[in-house]
């Protein structure tokens, strides 16, 4: 029983589409990642020594750990895949692909990484079916 998994991913949520034995299923996973931290002084706020304030680094470090945990949860959801297709807007798709590639067991399973706009759940399922059609 081969499973082909497509995953639409951004920093807020992911939709995991599993195709197996002519059937498809969709699972939504929320990331619970905090939004980027912004100081009220603007992007280039620095303290008197010319360095970024420590208060800005802690939330960004926490966000990095939250993203790592989110990607690890997604990896658990694709572990049974024969092939994986990753798509979505922004940087999350490539960040997630890098996390997968760190795991030897997933070597060679990623068949495609594509940019994609925000899609409805039906459009996500259709895109995954189209990608894996003929397999």
Structural overview:
- With 135 residues, this protein is of the alpha/beta class.
- It has one domain (3-36, 54-132): Nucleotidyltransferase, domain 5.
- 34% of the residues lie in helices and 26% in strands.
- The chain is built from three helices and five strands; from the N terminus they run βββαβαβα.
- It has helices at 54-77, 92-101, 121-132, and strands spanning 3-9, 13-20, 23-30, 83-88, 110-115.
- α2 (92-101) links the parallel β4 and β5 (110-115).
- α1 crosses α2 (92-101).
Short summary of the structure?
With 135 residues, the chain is of the alpha/beta class. The chain has helices at residues 54-77, 92-101, 121-132, and strands at 3-9, 13-20, 23-30, 83-88, 110-115.
Write the layout of secondary structure elements.
Elements: E1 3-9, E2 13-20, E3 23-30, H1 54-77, E4 83-88, H2 92-101, E5 110-115, H3 121-132
Parallel strand pairs: 1-4, 4-5
Antiparallel strand pairs: 1-2, 2-3
Helix pairs in contact: 1-2
């Amino acid at each position: 029983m081969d499973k082909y998994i497509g995953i639409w991913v951004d920093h807020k949520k992911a939709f995991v589409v599993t195709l197996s034995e002519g059937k498809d299923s969709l699972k939504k996973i929320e990331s619970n990642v905090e939004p980027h931290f912004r100081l009220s002084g603007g992007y280039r706020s620095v303290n008197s020594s010319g360095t970024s304030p420590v208060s800005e680094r802690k939330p960004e470090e926490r966000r990095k750990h939250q993203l790592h945990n989110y990607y690890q949860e997604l990896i658990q959801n694709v572990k049974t895949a024969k092939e994986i297709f990753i798509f979505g807007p922004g940087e999350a798709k490539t960040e997630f692909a890098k996390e997968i590639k760190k795991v030897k067991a997933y070597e060679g399973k990623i068949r495609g990484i594509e940019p994609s706009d925000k899609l409805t759940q039906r459009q996500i399922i259709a895109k995954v079916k189209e990608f894996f059609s003929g397999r």
